[in-house]
Specification:
Blueprint: H1 6-9, E1 12-13, E2 16-17, E3 19-28, E4 33-42, E5 53-57, H2 66-70, H3 73-80, E6 86-90, E7 99-100, E8 103-104, H4 105-120, E9 130-135, H5 137-148, E10 155-159, H6 182-186, H7 189-192, H8 199-208, E11 215-221, H9 227-239, E12 245-249, H10 255-275
Parallel strand pairs: 5-6, 5-9, 9-10, 10-11, 11-12
Antiparallel strand pairs: 1-2, 3-4, 4-6, 7-8
Length: 287
């Protein structure tokens, strides 16, 4: 198979790739109101097969612009890693990427948004060129999306992900972020296991299905209030022989920590794009 030369498709000046920063607004049919999406796009014509893409999902109490403002994602894509990649940063309010009376954000993120982006830009349809990542609540959203659609994504990356028991979540500064919303987002506790929001059941189902799993990476700082939840989820994946990479390093639940892990994520994505190979998470070999 011929390898597409992605780097030659985007404009470079003095060896530096140029990026466009787009803010697009449209009426979401899933939500019934206007939504805004931040998008980074390499300058110049796309490669013949379309641009590789990363969907980057925000955390609780954030929005579509927060990861653009609080991390160095554009600088890393352009300078540090120099990877010709479309980065899509949508807003999902405090929805936990679910469909609820607050809005059909799961339908919007998982189905409508990709269709809208692919109508706007020439995006590669190959799973080797499609990735999803997220911070905190967005880590949950990224894992949920990839576990539901493993045939679409070549890699999924959770940074400080909300991967624990939603019915026993720790308070942060004395505040329970899910107070009054648990059942609206996740249903009753007795109905949660095996549901569309149960990451453990989704991971088992994905691993049992035909076809390769996405490359799966979990990051969490040692001083993060979600560290025990991430350790527990890591242990669960190991116990069930679901291949993944677990990174536990110094850090807290912060955008500073997220920014540091984004560099590793982009380097991994660049490596996969350039080699056109993904590690088969079921066999451990590259495909």
């Amino acid at each position: 198979m011929a390898v597409e030369n992605f780097s030659s498709s985007s404009k470079h000046y003095d060896g530096v790739m140029r990026m466009n920063y787009l803010k697009t607004e449209f009426l979401s049919t899933s939500l019934g109101h206007q939504v805004c999406v931040d998008i980074l796009v390499p300058e110049g014509p796309p490669p013949e097969g379309g641009w590789p893409i990363l969907y980057l999902l925000h955390g609780y109490s954030e929005g579509n612009s927060l990861l653009m403002r609080y991390t160095q994602i554009e600088h890393m894509v352009k300078w540090d890693v120099n990877v010709p990649l479309v980065v899509v940063m949508p807003g999902a309010s405090n929805s936990f990427y679910t469909d609820s009376p607050y809005g059909n954000y799961w339908t919007y993120i998982s189905k409508e948004l990709p269709e809208r982006v692919e109508a706007l830009l020439h995006i590669s349809s190959r799973r080797e060129n499609q990735f999803v990542a997220g911070f905190s609540m967005g880590g949950f959203g990224a894992l949920k999306t990839a576990f539901h659609f493993p045939d679409r994504f070549g890699g999924v990356f959770s940074i400080s992900g909300a991967v624990g028991d939603f019915f026993d979540t720790p308070e942060v500064n004395g505040v329970d972020a899910l107070a009054g919303r648990r059942e609206l987002f996740f249903g009753k506790r007795e109905d949660f296991d095996g549901s569309a929001n149960d990451l453990k059941s989704l991971a088992l189902r994905m691993n049992a299905a035909e076809g390769p799993n996405p490359e799966l990476v979990l990051y969490c700082g040692k001083n993060d209030f979600l560290i025990e939840a991430n350790r527990s989820f890591h242990a669960y994946l190991e116990e069930n022989d679901i291949k993944h990479r677990y990174v536990e390093n110094e850090g807290t639940h912060s955008h500073t920590y997220a920014n540091q892990q984004l560099l590793d994520i982009l380097q991994t994505i660049k490596s996969r794009i350039e080699s056109e190979k993904l590690p088969n998470q079921k066999s451990g070999i590259f495909i």
